[in-house]
């Protein structure tokens, strides 16, 4: 019984405190109607003109201004020779609310028309989206005169289920029901951060220091070139350490390499910007190539359209 009584008293106290807080907040913030009426009167210096602008009767404007003046405890307008003249306090108030209303109007306009703007949507892998596609989006958007939207997925089955205009996917070019055109042929080589590259150079014998890991991308379907394929097909005398990190996405492998966690195999066409910017260092001139690569996909007939051709030409020219 005591617990129930205590709970009842506590609820009543909490309710009273919430009401006081609400009333306090209401006293601090003037009404929106009053502020809008003030804005229009300030701009037009006329109750009549303000009433027309807000599609209300003049007495309603007079009432809102009176309430606002009472709330603030100041006079906002003075009559001089038959016209309304803002007071110094009115100038200060208008400066504040004009910025606030301006921001609200700008945001509302952007949201109002956001879904009406034509958009090109592309689905691809996180690594491609981050390190290759994103720097090319401004040029692509400008060329097409469209906003661009990128959706990323790790698995192909998820990627191709996305409801988008086109896709960038890895494979040999065989996607039944899709148009496909090669963007970047598979060509891989080892890369690392500048710090890790310097540590390897200092070792001088072609053996990776024990603390430097090999970063592998798991590939149960044997779709892309891996470290074993690179070692077999090159004249490299590398002797990789036994330390390995396995990830399920090329983008994550590149991220780990960039942070100095180890050495990754990089698709040369994908990481060209990172190498030019010296964020990654190509550790060997030996590269291995296959018949696979990254392809631009679209629904049947898409690449024959004007937009499809422009998308391919824009992306291929920077590949």
UniProtKB/TrEMBL annotation:
Gene3D superfamilies linked to this entry: Periplasmic binding protein-like II (3.40.190.10), Winged helix-like DNA-binding domain superfamily/Winged helix DNA-binding domain (1.10.10.10)
Alphabetized UniProt keyword annotations: DNA-binding, Transcription, Transcription regulation
Molecular function GO labels: DNA binding; DNA-binding transcription factor activity
Pfam families noted in UniProt: HTH_1, LysR_substrate
Annotated HTH lysR-type domain residues: 30-87
Similarity-based family: Belongs to the LysR transcriptional regulatory family.
InterPro entries: LysR-type_TF_proteobact-type, LysR_HTH_N, LysR_subst-bd, WH-like_DNA-bd_sf, WH_DNA-bd_sf
The protein's name in its UniProt record: Glycine cleavage system transcriptional activator
PANTHER family: HTH-TYPE TRANSCRIPTIONAL ACTIVATOR TTDR-RELATED, HTH-TYPE TRANSCRIPTIONAL REGULATOR
